[in-house]
């Protein structure tokens, strides 16, 4: 039985009779092929990329496992439609916090229509895509005080400036994160979550510094971690229980690289890494301040 994903944070959503992805109970994510060439394009990308021996195994694991395409009942009631069958990245998590970050300082690319170019460039300028080289597309976080999830409205998320993006990244790893814009995120899980995420981002960056196979236009980094482990007070193996992971999603606009580095993605990724590093560094400074004040107080 297919159902609407509980933890989807961006993109086309299967609600109000609209076409969107579905999931099953066996860890598979069904993404409908979009009517224009985009769906076919993404399927072709998965077909060739997933079996490309030039891509190292440690990089393949940053992409959802691909199980081909399948005709299934579409979410909009229009009958059977072809869907990409992918690994459901969040299926093994009970209470996942999830964030989708679209990487790159532009989402348009050569040879798109004038209409598409205008739509993209407007959105890129109105969001942090142009200024930061990435934009937060959507996220959901677990509020440990309210014991419930908070998923901000798309309009709010797409309205973030640099400070808004920074604050969202801090909220994503806080136990007091909530809809209250006055609450200061405590970054309680930043060290464990972003410690693990940073290692993965740096591994991806090293590959993007040399890979010239593809250009990943409009592609997103999906970050996920488990809250259940925190609720159970993880202990020494907190990092293992959190299972913080990074996956790349959305390949509807990927192009051949033709021997050229993907500077758009690489630049955006470097900028995103800097934001994560800054949060980790602010924790060290906070710890140093606490140590100093304890010494001053003779503790
Ligand atoms: O339809 P919109 O305006 O919500 O735009 C979609 C984007 O939403 P956004 O507003 O940037 O959060 C959406 O972005 P996210 O996946 O939400 O990051 C996609 O870029 C989508 O295009 P495609 O399916 O990848 O070709 C975009 O869909 P298309 O407009 O290109 O069909
Ligand atoms: N393989 C996956 N497993 C779990 N969730 C996914 C997967 N792929 C996408 N998603 C969810 O769906 C959202 C939209 O995916 P995306 O591929 O960008 O779709 P669209 O083309 O509609 O923008 C992501 O933000 C994420 O929440």
From TrEMBL:
<dbReference type="Pfam" id="PF03770">
    <property type="entry name" value="IPK"/>
</dbReference>
<comment type="function">
    <text>Inositol phosphate kinase with a broad substrate specificity.</text>
</comment>
<dbReference type="GO" id="GO:0016301">
    <property type="term" value="F:kinase activity"/>
</dbReference>
<protein>
    <recommendedName>
        <fullName>Inositol polyphosphate multikinase</fullName>
        <ecNumber>2.7.1.140</ecNumber>
        <ecNumber>2.7.1.151</ecNumber>
    </recommendedName>
</protein>
<keyword id="KW-0067">ATP-binding</keyword>
<dbReference type="GO" id="GO:0005524">
    <property type="term" value="F:ATP binding"/>
</dbReference>
<dbReference type="InterPro" id="IPR038286">
    <property type="entry name" value="IPK_sf"/>
</dbReference>
<dbReference type="InterPro" id="IPR005522">
    <property type="entry name" value="IPK"/>
</dbReference>
<keyword id="KW-0808">Transferase</keyword>
<comment type="similarity">
    <text>Belongs to the inositol phosphokinase (IPK) family.</text>
</comment>
<keyword id="KW-0418">Kinase</keyword>
<keyword id="KW-0547">Nucleotide-binding</keyword>
